[in-house]
Amino acid sequence: MLSVSLSASASAIASGRARSEAEAGRRPGGIRLCGPLGDAPACGSLRLSYAAASVATKRAVPRAAASGNGAVGGSGGGFDYDLVIIGAGVGGHGAALHAVEEGLKTAIIEGDVVGGTCVNRGCVPSKALLAVSGRMRELHDEHHMKSLGLQVSAAGYDRQAVADHANNLASKIRSNLTNSMKAIGVDILTGFGTIVGKQKVRYGKVGFPDKEITAKNIIIATGSVPFVPKGIEIDGKTVFTSDHALKLESVPDWIAIVGSGYIGLEFSDVYTALGSEVTFVEALDQLMPGFDPEIAKLAQRVLINTRKIDYRTGVFASKITPAKNGKPVLIELIDAKTKEHKETLEVDAALIATGRAPFTNGLGLENINVVTQRGFIPVDERMQVTDADGNVVPNLFCIGDANGKLMLAHAASAQGISVVEQISGRDHILNHLSIPAACFTHPEISMVGLTEPQAREKADKEGFEVSVVKTSFKANTKALAENEGDGIAKLIYRPDTGEILGVHILGLHAADLIHEASNAIALGTRLQELKLAVHAHPTLSEVLDELFKAAKLQPKEVQERKQNHPPQPLLKVLSFISSLLSSQKQDR
Predict the structure, then answer these.
(1) Cα-Cα-Cα-Cα dihedral of 168, 170, 175, 181, to 10°?
(2) Each residue of 267-294: pLDDT tens digit?
(3) Cα–Cα nearest to 413, from 27, 63, 56, 88
(4) What is the distance between the alpha carbons of residues 228 and 294, in angstroms, rounded to a whole number?
(5) Containing H/E element for 100?
(6) If we measure between CA atoms, which residue out of 48, 61, 58 comes closest to residue 574?
(7) ∠ CA(99), CA(103), CA(106), 5° rounding?
(8) H or E stretch covering 507
(9) Which residues lie across from 218 on neighbouring strands?
(10) Burial of 389 (0-12, 13-18, 19+ CB in 10 A)
């Protein structure tokens, strides 16, 4: 008996690989938030087992029409390249490597430096700073050290050496990415890429003549830049974005962080570990919006209330003036709802962590009748760019932050690989709900799938039950050996089918632990199977082992009865499959 995924699309039903898209959340002003802050969408396709549908799963989409745009891998057709990628960040890099593996002649255009935001101004250098903050917290936690039998004298740090560590790591990873592409024959073209027509790209840099190349397929992977709201003056020294903060040119005594998402949280971890006092300024009524509410409440207790951090919620920073002539940074706060003035903060510095905006200007989209939506390039579930009339632009794709579906580096890479699968003749739709996200604070936060409110809203609409179970790190031997028992794992699931709807973790190495859950969602693995999995003892992975085992599923006979009598909407879909199979038999 084969398992088939059902969706409203006839071609998706035939391929059995449909997955719903994940839309990133939105802040006031229409700017989407990165990563964990984005609102998750409805769950992916409901998977049912029916022997009658097995034929549909065996019938692959014809290779030439797999992507719906006639794009097929291989050289020829008079093109310079099979694939040209505009943007050499993590997304473009992942797509390029997979394209070469598939035998596609590939070029990648980069106007700045290889690695994009993640490697040069984001994920990579920030993790170097967070590694330092983690060590500092351990060394300063006298109670923790004594409980392990350790005696440590006063710990200090060299600010420039810490900054150099972050910069050196970024340089190393950037070099690794560059060399990995050169080694397999990817042509790295320097300059800013512009689409000048169907399957044509012009690139060049200031002071040099432009060059034009043709490509059977084009991927836009230009990423994003920090979003700075109106009224905020950036000087890069006392008022700055994460791009500047990663250079760690100073450690202010008192810094305001505008935005309490994962970027703001991570920097609060760094600054407080190095001795700063922090004030969060958050437009919404609660800190950490977008996180599962229960996890956010616990995280606030551990990551904020115990540190030199205070906060203002429900307020906008309507104006921020950099420090000048001996005067401090001035932050004017207004009520988010009434817009009335609330107070003026005077601080030493301000970090603007209000999300990111797509970098899509100058791409020549007007040449192919594509209109951005708040700067984001519109795409369908296969990352195919759609024009102003809602039609797919043949052979043109957009991945990563530029399309705004899920603003995470690894999501961009996954989208790029998915696109290469399509242009190689294999239909593929990425399940964004299976993509994990993490906040690398101490302790870490990670998540995949839906939050509890989102899951219950979906259950109310679709008519199924939701159950929640939790386990504590205090019950884990490895966590206790580390004296790191503060933590919780939360599972949101369907007791009738065993489907995982969401997993959220706060605790030691949460960012590493989440992948067992994300892979289970991606592969459609149910709790019935996960309960039988074996985990090494004693390891932190047993946190999830206990979590899965604690899930209470409905008796097998109830599950089978529900499979044999599916909900009415599914009966209509199954009826469609039946008629589809009948027509195929008649054609034969």
Answers:
(1) 170
(2) 999 999 999 999 999 999 999 998 999 9
(3) 88
(4) 30
(5) helix 90-101
(6) 48
(7) 50
(8) strand 500-507
(9) 84, 396
(10) exposed
Give 14-70 pLDDT, tens digit per residue: 333 333 333 333 333 334 444 443 333 333 333 333 233 332 332 233 333 333 333
Listed residue (358, 88, 372, 116) closest to 203, CA to CA: 88
Name the residues annotated as catalytic: 537
Spatial distance between the Cα atoms of 172 and 247, rounded to a whole number of angstroms: 16
d(CA 99, CA 426): 13
Residues 175, 159 contacting (CB under 8 angstroms): no
Q: Which residues pair with 80 in a beta bridge?
A: none
Residues 6+ apart with CB under 8 A from 461: none
| β-pair partners for 352 | 241, 258
> For residues 437 and 292, is the Cβ–Cβ distance under 8 A?
no
d(CA 530, CA 121): 38
Cα radius of gyration rounded to whole Å, the chain: 25
Q: What are phi and psi of 578, to 5 degrees?
A: -60, -45
Q: How far is residue 127 CA from its own chain's centroid?
A: 16
Q: Give the H or E element holding residue 311.
A: strand 309-313
Q: Where are the beta strands (DSSP E) in 314-372?
A: 315-321, 329-335, 341-347, 349-352, 356-358
Distance CA 18, CA 2 (A): 15
Here the tokens at position 414 are 């996954």
